Amino acid sequence: MALKTQEPESLETLRHTSSHILAQAVLELFPGTKLSIGPSTEDGFYYDFDREEPFGIGDLEKIEERMKDIVKRDLPIERSEMSKEEAIEFFRKNGQPYKVELLEEIEDAAVSCYSQGDFIDLCRGPHLPSTGKARVFKLLSVAGSYWRGDEKRKMLQRIYGTSFFTKEDLKEHLKRLEEAKKRDHRKIGKVLDLFSINEDIGPGLINWHPKGALIRHIIEDFWKTEHFSNGYQLIQTPHMAKVHLWETSGHMDFYKDNIFSPMEVEGQAYIIKPMNCPFHIQIYKTRQRSYRDLPFRWAELGTVYRYERSGVMHGLLRVRGFTQDDAHIFCRPDQLAGEISTVLNFTVKMLRAFGFSEYDIYLSTRPEKFVGSEENWKAATDSLKGALEQAGLAYQVDPGEGVFYGPKIDVKIKDCLGRSWQCSTIQVDFNLPERFDVNFVGSDGASHRAIMIHRALLGSLERFFGCLIEHYAGAFPVWLSPVQAILLPITDAQNGYALEAAGKMRERGLRVEVDSRNEKVGFKIREAQMQKIPYMLVVGEKEEKDGTVSVRERGGENTGPIDKEEFIEKTLEKIRARRNN
Predict the structure, then answer these.
(1) pTM of this structure
(2) How confident is the model at residue 254 (pLDDT cuts 50, 70, 90)?
(3) Catalytic-role residue among 116, 324, 335, 484
(4) Do 127 and 159 reside in the same domain of the chain?
(5) Are residues 381 and 291 in the same domain?
(6) How far apart are CA 11 and CA 44, in angstroms?
(7) Which of the following is catalytic: 15, 20, 99, 454?
(8) Residue 495 falls within a domain, yes or no?
(9) Confidence bin at 4 (pLDDT 50/70/90)
């Protein structure tokens, strides 16, 4: 197998092989260990093990050494096929119940296995030709993982690792991992006092502290302003609805596992909402709509609630209660292409305003099971494709990865470390208009089915906030910073001047604080730097006399004394330029 080492498929194959080498090493060192699954991931690989004794750091070192030994053996990796019954018997005899469970659910009559020496694993592949081709790897950590993600099942031990074709690439990746640790939004959120998660309230439910709430309000206000400018109307919907609504929408069938249990109110079953779409449809259906009225562009910062297992929640990135920057567009078929193009341009503009100029775009097409006609699917897919090409945006096609109700565009932003984050999505929906009978009266006086577009530009505000924290390492752009400048009087004698200057800055719209504590100015500067405040304005006797402030930027650069008014104007201009970028 000839592999081009820079291609994602090549890394995926390498890492998949590395996970098998990991599993073989564990079995050789710890006989009787039960194997679960071991896939490649975007950044590496993992394997889940069932072993009574926990793996420690010393064990990881031993396992890594044994993996190196397996690589040195350069064992040929060979594919073979067994009947489903033969495979079940083989893995049962070898004491691998998790493999047996997986096999019992497979419908195929035959399954593929890969072997290297005495090690055999159930796997679709592909793999490298031999273990000697996977020379550059590193085991990273151990974590708990429930079998099949179900906390009612057994807790397994997941060993994470990564592998590359060159030592240089591995070294660079490990550097990025160290930097990512420093940028962890949970750690920075605590230091900057932005948010918290309290066990008495519950996992996955966010408490926003004053500074975090302020940033969130800035994001929301900007979002609202931009939506008004782009022809949207804002709506607001309840947090719960009768079960019947979710039965009509299909969520009870398709998303039941992610919906919280119903609650009974006066004999009626209600559910806190997992999505906003059915509410928007109900607003549409409050009156007869004419073809002349369309399109309707309705947007909402709607808080939704989805059941996530405890083991998968992660800070702001995976939560149970979050606010979606939702919008739904109801339009005629002849308006579809234009609306998609407008939404796509709006998406790119919004992401750039927050400093994300790199992204990967995916066009997901019709899956095997779908609703709607093939003709409508083709028209919608062509509209999505045409909008991407008209905007000159590079994209990848994900064949068959559309949702059952329509094709979609997904935009994954890239942060400063090159990591991808799912944020924006544009989806054409043929399902809900059918389920809810969403129509308009055409020019012919007859009733016609409306087309519905789901779109989110930022996605979950919580997740987007987490991305922002890690992208900027907490050093937000000036327009997003909760405190944009802090005045630091050198002595108590300058406190009055500092307070007066701060008052004028606040009048002009800047978010300013004064540190009037009886501390050395160097100490105050260090604390302000830890809080990632963009500008530290030192004021002493000379600055008070001249009506100036001495500016020190959070990166450490001293720009010297500047007139107060000039500082205000320059800062306001910087804020305007950033937001309009």
Answers:
(1) 0.86
(2) confident
(3) 324
(4) yes
(5) yes
(6) 9
(7) 454
(8) yes
(9) very low
